[in-house]
Design a protein that fits this description.
Cathepsin D, subunit A, domain 1; six-stranded mixed β-barrel; five-stranded mixed beta sheet; elongated
């Protein structure tokens, strides 16, 4: 045993005292070893060519394709030692596996890649007839490729759509290949790396969207908002239940309809800031509200710019000890003695539907559009046609000015205390005044032709235009605000 211990001590004495250890990061696109790290203990005085042999022994990557980089600088010369190249113990090298160049065939290969690998006309027609004869396949095509389904009954049209889809797919694939080729040309090009990173991210996002579209289609459906029927000061109102709102909010038009406009305490007026801004006219400290079989005292913050008449916020929900029962579809108060069923989709106000028609959309899979705020999936072009029809209701523009200035005109007309002086109800019905508009004369919503730009002073229009808005937007805002320049400017900044 003692002899063995002495032998081990003698062997350890031959271990080189300064054996440099380096780490090599492999960059090999389309290779299994891409992004791998290897650590090597190297003897002193090793040349760059010998290092390539070590890497070849570890990874089987050909030595001729290896190019080493130290601090983003290529290491040239296989005869140079690692010490001469500046490689020290603990350094990390990048090793790029260069792709073999084929200059004679490169142009021909690129031209071939640009040609879509489409089917022959006979194969396309066979596919069309096969889809027509298979209801399940037809349903799938209608869902995933609506443009193709629309042309299914016309041979020539179907062929054109099919070939167009082939070309688009080929162009996308060619663009992806060209972007990836940048990595082979210069892996340390910052701009190339940024583009490739964005391309990979976009592919991941699209794959995630496609997965959700196929496996969780319900998340793209339209969610019915929670409304309950209530009575404020003996006037029926459909209240929107929103536990995410801090306070209970009422629109000026609803306050006027319920006869509590005179109770507004203007000392509580101001500007509400969140996603945009809104004008707070004041607060009604106490008014009777009947929910179910109970009558309670409730306070309301009267604020412009909302698409609902009445919004029950967290302050009143906590005060009344309300429980939102989504399983039972009802709002429960207290110990359960008072329950109110949520309104069905057919009974809720259409304010949110109109707002969704105006919301921004992003491109979805297979020619669809997805609402940015609501997440609703619809066919491309449906939102723009919807918003165009709705936006023309105010001043003949497609900007769709919503409640702020219009509700203010109604408030000023009834209270005689605002800055704007309007002659009668000149505002178009807004989502916040849906009920009142349904009970009033149809003449309360003027057509665009009924409003002339000559009724406003040129100075008023120029003042709004100088703020950066178009002339038609300025006129539409003045229409909505009864000619008041200050409120029109506030409306333009809020929209």
């Amino acid at each position: 045993m003692k002899g063995m211990k002495r032998a081990n001590t003698d062997i350890s004495s031959f271990t080189p005292p300064n054996r440099p250890r380096i780490t090599i990061s492999i960059i090999a696109p389309n290779h299994a070893l891409d992004q791998e790290l290897i650590t090597l203990d190297l003897p002193p005085g090793l040349s760059v060519g010998d290092l390539k042999g070590f890497v070849n022994a570890e990874t089987h990557l050909p030595q001729a394709a290896q190019q080493f980089y130290l601090n983003n600088t290529p290491i040239a010369g296989d005869d140079k030692t690692l010490e001469e190249a500046g490689v020290k113990d603990g350094d990390m090298l990048a090793m790029l596996m260069r792709q073999p160049e084929q200059p004679n065939n490169m142009n021909a290969q690129r031209r071939q890649q640009r040609r879509p690998a489409g089917r022959s006309p006979h194969e396309i027609e066979t596919s069309r007839l096969s889809i027509l004869g298979n209801p399940a396949a037809m349903a799938q095509v209608r869902e995933q490729r609506p443009a193709l389904a629309e042309a299914i009954n016309d041979t020539n049209w179907f062929k054109e759509v099919w070939e167009k889809m082939d070309r688009e797919d080929a162009e996308r694939e060619q663009e992806r290949r060209e972007q990836m080729a940048l990595l082979n040309e210069d892996p340390f090009n910052v701009e190339a790396q940024r583009k490739i990173e964005e391309m990979i991210r976009q592919e991941s996002v699209q794959e995630n969207l496609q997965f959700a579209y196929e496996h969780n289609p319900e998340v793209f459906g339209r969610v019915t908002m929670l409304y309950i029927p209530v009575e404020v000061n003996r006037h029926p109102v459909k209240a929107f239940v929103d536990s995410g709102a801090q306070t209970t909010i009422m629109s000026p038009s609803c306050a006027e309809t319920c006869g509590i406009m005179r109770l507004i305490d203007k000392r509580y007026s101001g500007i509400a800031k969140g996603v945009g801004t809104a004008q707070i006219l004041g607060r009604v400290h106490a008014a009777d509200i009947r929910i179910g079989n109970s009558t309670m005292s409730c306070s309301f913050t009267v604020m412009e710019g909302k698409d609902v008449d009445l919004l029950l916020g967290l302050d009143m929900l906590k005060r009344f000890q309300a429980v939102i029962d989504l399983r039972g579809g009802k709002l429960v108060f207290g110990d359960g003695g008072n329950e109110v069923q949520f309104l069905g989709e057919a009974d809720i106000p259409k304010g949110f539907e109109e707002a969704r028609g105006r919301e921004d959309v992003v491109e979805g899979p297979n020619g669809t559009e997805i609402g940015v705020e609501s997440g609703t999936v619809r066919q491309a072009g449906a939102s723009s046609s919807s918003s165009a029809g709705q936006g023309s209701s105010v001043g003949g523009t497609t900007n769709g000015f919503r409640g702020p200035g219009q509700a203010l005109g109604a408030a000023s007309s009834s209270s005689k205390s605002g800055k704007a002086a309007v002659n009668g109800p000149t505002h178009a019905p807004t989502p916040a005044s849906t009920q009142r508009a349904s009970r009033s004369a149809p003449a309360s919503a003027p057509t665009p032709a009924a409003t002339s730009s000559t009724v406003y002073p040129k100075e008023a229009i120029d003042q709004l235009v100088s703020l950066g808005f178009a002339r038609n937007q300025a006129i539409a805002a003045l229409d909505a605000c009864g000619g008041d320049v200050e409120y029109a400017a506030g409306l333009l900044f809020q929209s």
